[in-house]
Amino acid sequence: MNVALSGYTRGGTGDAVWPFFWQLYAVPAMLGSTAMAVLYALDVRGFIATLSAAVLAFAFRILAMRYGWRAPLARGISGPRRLPAPPP
User: Where are the transmembrane segments (predicted)?
Assistant: First the structure.
């Protein structure tokens, strides 16, 4: 059980919290895929298009981490789910 929970951070209540709950994942992925589609439409293909889209998505993700950007949560979700505490 300790191995399974080793990647999780401890919350103030002693419960394990899902890691990276507040970080952006889907938005940078959509940005990168949109960039790839636009480059494909402009007949820019191959390594240059792939590298450009990947760098754009990566840079957006790093900036989001650096400046604490957050995506809105779905209605009815108030915060991260908690896992039970690992056995002693």
Answer: 20-40, 47-69
CA torsion angle 69 24 62 81 (round to 10): 90
Dihedral of alpha carbons 74, 69, 62, 8, sign: negative
What are the extents of the domains in the chain?
A: 23-70
Q: Which residues pair with 79 in a beta bridge?
A: none
Q: What is the pTM of this model?
A: 0.62
Rounded distance between C-alpha atoms, residue 76 and residue 88, angstroms: 33
> Are 9 and 16 within 8 A, CB to CB?
yes
d(Cα 51, Cα 35) in Å, to the nearest integer? 11
Higher pLDDT, 73 or 54: 54
